[in-house]
Amino acid sequence: MTQLSEAPPRTRAQISERTLRKDPWWRTPAVVAALLTIWVLYATVRVFTGHWYWVPAYHYLTPFYSPCVSGECVPGSSSLGQWIPALPPVIPYAFVSLPFVLGFRLSCYYYRGAYYKAFWRAPTACAVREPHASYSGETRLPLILHNLHRFFFYVVVLISILNTWDMVQAFRGKDGSFGIGLGSLIMLVNVVLLWGYTLSCHSCRHITGGRLKNFSSHPVRYWIWTKISRLNQRHMQLAWTTLGTLMLTDLYIMLVASGAFSDPRIFN
Amino acid sequence: MGYKAKFRVWRGDAGTGALQDYEVEVNEGEVVLDVLHRLQATQANDLALRWNCKAGKCGSCSMEINGRPRLGCMTRMSVFSPSETLTITPMRTFPVIRDLVTDVSFNYEKARQIPSFTPDASVKPGEFRMMQQDVNRSQEFRKCIECYLCQNTCHVIRDHAENEAAFAGPRFLMRVAELEMHPADTADRRDIAQEDFGLGYCNITKCCTEVCPEHIKITDNALIPMKERVAGRKYDPLVWLGSKISRRPKSEGTPVAVRPAAKDAT
Prior knowledge:
The complex is a heterodimer. By secondary structure, chain A is mainly alpha-helical.
């Protein structure tokens, strides 16, 4: 009687190519890496510049310097008052808000996926072999700290309220009464989009209603959840758009504050 | 009008094999699976290929077409240029049985480990009542056809086979989320999602969502909401404080992941 030989152990297909994708899979992560690098460099230079952040005539304050609470802030730019004396130049004027804004963006579910691909190559693109020997994801420090995203969200809601106040102040003319300039409108668009980005956050979606098991028992929260969910579908677009509007708003205020450009006034 | 398409198909078994070149006739309106069937009928009678419904509903013909995880029956030939060479390989994450057929039993093992639906024991059969808005989320996940393309493309196990024990993959984390969001399920699955099924390994690159032929928003609607629930359970001191002062309902308890019996070493 013939004895059957044992089947060989099954293994994965041994394919040496890192990927067999033929589409330009490297393009999106390359563009993301380039844009994020440009933005971070610009923002870093600007927050440490220490001037051209306030236009006293029209009450324009760049979001990169809000709130300005230290002794060196120019008069009028400190909407929350000046709590502390002048700081060394290595500390940005908006040290109160910047760590939370940065933490909110760094722990954002969209940005995480984007920068893991663009910078850490884990993976660079889908179905493209990553170069790392091992992988533990977000199970250990420091990446496990991403679970604190909702706390950054709570603080950023307060910062968005402050940005809204700054924007309202920007609708004033030289005499202090109501006025509209191009800068006011740019700040308005920026604030509206910042609210869109903040409220479309996945943590916001969870807090407002996502954590419920029974929507039918909580009709108001369910209604809010459906609206946030719809906004959440645009979270990636809002993440990029707000980076653009933040940079544009700051650049515009810098140009007006430095005298390189005069603000066109629509009313008063 | 027909043309001759160039195909490179991975042939082999037990992991060893190579890409072989073929030229196969293609007719208007055909999909990749049709062409592979013609290849099998005319040139490579021993080509192993798993398929069933030819309608994108059975999840059998999962493969990689030009390096991208796809269903053969849902990939039209018209999206490729007639001069293009199509490279067809088996799913890379699973062991090969032969040619394009892989052993997907990893997924069945993971499925068995998930504690099943746990209703309130005091509710009698026939007494369950659910509103549509309460089950919409779970019903999206029920669209899954178990093609395992999401499992195949997830780099956590695709590039790191050593994570297979710790990570259940997007399809089964979605199953955990489905039960966690079910209005009539009383179990608290947040601990096992993180500890036993490896939710923390997911770094939300959305590759699972990208390949899903049913267009289920796996990352946005299952994995991220599950991560948020886990954050509430394990990493949120405000929630912890709320539970201590009885502002939040007590957890109904965490079921235990069903671990397979240890295999006989002999």
